[in-house]
Amino acid sequence: MSLSLVQSRALLGLEAVQVTVEVHLANGLPSFTLVGLADVEVKEARERVRCAIQNSGLEFPNNKRITVNLAPADLPKDSGRLDLPIALGILAASGQIDAAALAGFEFAGELSLSGELRAVRGALAMALALRRSPTRPQLVLPPGNAEEAALVPDSRVIRARHLLDVVHHFAPGGQAKDAEGVPLEQDPEGWVRVVPAPLQARAHHADMADVKGQASAKRALEIAAAGGHSLLLVGPPGSGKSMLAQRFAGLLPDMSTDEALESAAIGSLCGRFQIQQWGQRPTCHPHHSASAVALVGGGSPPRPGEISLAHHGVLFLDEFPEFSRSALEALREPLETGTITIARAARRAEFPARFQLVAAMNPCPCGYLGSSTSTCRCTPDQVLRYQGKLSGPLMDRIDLHVEVPALPADELIQSPPGESSAAIRERSVQARERAIRRQGHPNQTLSGQAIDQSSALDPAAAKFLQTAATQLGWSARSTHRTLKIARTIADLAQSDATLLPHVAEAMQYRRVLRAGG
Question: Most buried among 267, 305, 341, 346, using CB within 10 Å?
């Protein structure tokens, strides 16, 4: 048979779109043509496939006119994931394997010149796409990718180490032969069905007990963990902001299977997912020199940024005002919507970005504004310029603004260890579960009428909040965010209604940065 069809997948954002690799062999001047909007990496597959087939002891049709079409033609294809499907298509078209037996399978993998299979990006996205497919084909992947794709429940994934392992399975009689008809050696472990791996136990995080003092900051972290709120820590150098932020992930609840799959799929898309991280909430900590594209995503084809890699996890931005203005302003929409849409002239991609922001900053350029241990050397204009790097709309979208003061030496040395992360986590998890039973999701995601329905605001508390918001000149967003924080505080107190003390405490966390000398 001179025509063969092999199924594979190409990545378009987080979506794995089906690609049909059509291979046709014809008489004529020997050539190897690859069409179908293939990127440079895909076009280079011609040489990799040729060498892999020959070095595996198989016959490459050098005397034929080879045409490979990657359909659909208007879908961009990149990376080396189509090497294996192209090689199998050539072998099927030349009669070395059974073309009809390839039905019901999808293939992906990069070929080395010796024929070994190498891992590619996005294996988890491919497995998730097959999960939604009505035909549920089996997926053949290289080592590393197969174990990753098998994390999807009810997946049908096979691991193959070498091109020959795949050829042996589809060759007539189950035994591949070379050009002279001599059977080629077969690896018994080369074609193995991978068993899905269960969610792992929680990762070990540094303990909150290591942080002495800072009771108000720890309380704010507990509220943020319970309600899914974003957080800004403001304080002088060495006051413990980074220590608090690095321990925040240990206060969050375990991931569900769907959350773990969503998070892992984004990491797989960027080649940053490791099987040891399965079921662990990601914590991303980009340097303040990161660009807006690195932070929110971009490029061509569009790739996810740090905010998407932190999906269902924590994004820690230290030295918050030192990030570029464009990078910080790009955070505004994702903080509100939980998604980021990257639009380019040729294509558009949407990535999830439901992360918890923990930001840390100094109150002024020298860092010691308001400190009791050191004197600030900054002028009021310098402080205003420094704090002005954070726009009002961005600050409005950060739920909790917390001051982290420097501790005196005697309190730092003589204080006993603080409360452990396990105890704080138990309370925050109970409060979050209480909110989910009531409304189906954490308090931070409340919007519109759901805020009024879920808050159950006491009349005295409502009057107090209304008066305070008017006097302080709060926006509607600030008022609603204060109300959601108060609802979380009420859940921590196991209260059905949001009372005046809950609103009063919530108002303490909407602090505005102050300028001074």
Answer: 305
